[in-house]
Q: What sequence folds into this?
């Protein structure tokens, strides 16, 4: 099946700021059913994720970025206003003190990929706080946006900084 030609319109509309939020894509550029079909995703589930993008898995966003001709950071930029509303505050006093090292180590370049976080915070601590199994931490593209937001908050990183680490991890794992 041939890809819908309206995908070509999304990047120019993003650059011109006509598309400012993820949901704008489906208001001005393309039907959500066409995207759901191309992603091989149930239309109802896709509609629910448009309304609450915190449930998207990172791999699903990467596929969409490719379809929409957007950089990975740009698709995150589009969904950020919507998933930020869903974010729950994490009490700084209740988090494990080892998270405090992450921001500094990121700033000085000692943390350059997602996996580097575990040099400072054990996997079992992160898994507990994300409510995800320790094994699942090896594959950050399986995280939901909400889970990424949680770990970013715990590490005192911005969401974009956390996605930068995940993207570096993805590139590191790809065969050359």
A:
């Amino acid at each position: 099946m041939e890809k819908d030609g309206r995908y070509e319109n999304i990047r120019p509309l993003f650059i011109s700021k006509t598309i400012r939020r993820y949901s704008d894509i489906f208001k001005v550029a393309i039907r959500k059913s066409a995207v759901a079909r191309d992603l091989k995703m149930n239309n109802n589930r896709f509609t629910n994720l448009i309304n609450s993008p915190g449930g998207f898995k990172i791999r699903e966003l990467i596929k969409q970025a490719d379809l929409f001709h957007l950089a990975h950071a740009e698709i995150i930029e589009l969904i950020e206003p919507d998933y930020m509303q869903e974010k729950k505050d994490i009490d700084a006093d209740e988090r494990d003190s080892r998270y405090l090292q992450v921001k500094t180590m990121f700033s000085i370049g000692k943390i350059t990929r997602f996996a580097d976080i575990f040099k400072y915070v054990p996997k079992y601590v992160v898994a507990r706080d994300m409510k995800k199994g320790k094994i699942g931490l090896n594959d950050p593209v399986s995280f939901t946006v909400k889970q990424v937001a949680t770990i970013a908050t715990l590490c005192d990183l911005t969401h974009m900084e956390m996605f930068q680490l995940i993207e570096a991890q993805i590139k590191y794992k790809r065969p050359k």
